[in-house]
Every structure is written in C-alpha cells, then in structure tokens.
Amino acid sequence: TPVADLLALHDATVLLATDQGIIRLVPQGDVYVTDPVTENIATAVHRLALAGDHIYTAADGGLYISLRQGRTWQRYADTPALPFHAVAPCPLWGACHALMAGSDAGMLFTPDDNLQPWRWLPGLYPLRTESVVASPAYDSDGTLFAGTEEGVFRSADRGITWQRLPTGDPPGHDAVFRAVRLSPAYATDGTVFASYEDRTLAQTALYRSADRGQTWTMFPAVAGGTALAVSPAFPVDRTVFFGRGDRVFKSTDAGATWTSYPVAD
Predict the structure, then answer these.
(1) What is the pLDDT of residues 32-75, one digit of tens each?
(2) Measured in whole angstroms, how far is the alpha carbon of residue 168 from the centre of its chain?
(3) pTM of the full predicted structure?
(4) Residue 63 phi, psi (nearest 5)
C-alpha cells in the first residue's frame, strides 16, 4: 500500500496515511501490529499533522480531525469536500491555535479551530496547493509558505497577502513544488527548502534558500514527492531527508550531496 505520510505519537503508535485511508500501528513486543480504525477515511490520505491532543489530516475527501489518537476520524463540517493535500498547525500550539490547509482550490485558514470557522485565504488566488508550512515563530512573525503548481509563495501577514518567490524554475513547464519545509532556526538562518517536479522534462530537484526565499540554489536530480524532512537539529547537523520510491535519501550538507539508503529488498 503506498504511504504518503506517517506520524509517530507519544505512546509509540504510528499512523500511516495511505491511498486506502489511515492505518494505525501499535507496538507489541519487538514488532508493530495493526490496530483497527473504527471510523476510517474512505479516500486517499496525503498529510498528517499533530497539535496537542488533536490529529489533523488532508485527504481526497476533505479535511479530517481525530480526538482519539487516530482510532476514529470526523470530517470538518464547515470545510468543502474537496481534495486537500496539506495541513499545518501553528508550531507554537497552545499559545496559538491557527490551522492552514491546502486544497485543489486554494488555501483555507482558521485562527482557532475550536472557536472560529474556516475561511478561504483571500491573498492566494485559487490554485492547487500541495504544501503549506508555518514559520516556527508564526505567533510573532505571521509567516506562511505554500508550495503550488505556480511556484512557491510566502505570506508575512498570516495569509492576507502573498508574494510569489523568484525560484527561477523554467516558465511554461508543467511543474509543481510539492513540499516546502523550514529550518527550525528559520527566524535566524532564513533557510527554506522546496522539492520540485518538472513533469515536462520528467526531472526532480531540490531548491534551497538561505534568505527567506529571496534567492535560491537548485540541486538537480534529487528530491521529488512530498516526503521531505528537515532535522530538528539542522542548524548544527545540516541534515535533510527525503523519500522516493523504496529509498530514503540523506544529506548532511544542507542538500548539496546525498546518500541513498534502501528501505526494502
């Protein structure tokens, strides 16, 4: 079963986002066993996000939430039943309860999913949004990034207005920025990563910026897909990971060179 995303919970439970809904794995001795999901998601699932004791997911059938560690799922009634590809909570959960989500029709936002309804972000015109990420200091700087079929966008005012960043990808190509990730020290190092797929040339690449998206360096023939992760200790270890097919790739020099590791025989 293709796995688009995974999430490890505090009790060592692992949730898998698959094309057949959520798979919940629990540790039993030295192995993991499947724990039934009694109210599952009937469509393909693309992203998982944890915030406090809430788990959010973006799926082809819409936005969903679980309050029971992924055992049951409910769709947000005030969101459209559109394909969603990304969901991101405020990194400072507790002080901030904002949520952002990317869909085929643009981006949705709520300042607090307990108290305020979801609404379309007005600054980003409707287009397929594959990835959305909030600055680690979102509560103070209000910065969001979005990966789309039209490029990488940045907002510095909580999504009210957006700027398309000058990545330098070839114009006129059928291409998409599938994943955007930030350094945990983004406030000081300004580092942004974006995985890129040029479907016209059947090529993939990784873009990196060290000045909040104003200029970019492209590393060709790497990355691809949405499985892109930055180490929590990135300012020290400079480590980035991505997954493609049956291999995991690791860089310890911020994306300049990569080592490949098979995950299946």
Answers:
(1) 999 999 999 999 999 999 988 899 999 999 999 999 999 999 99
(2) 22
(3) 0.80
(4) -100, 135
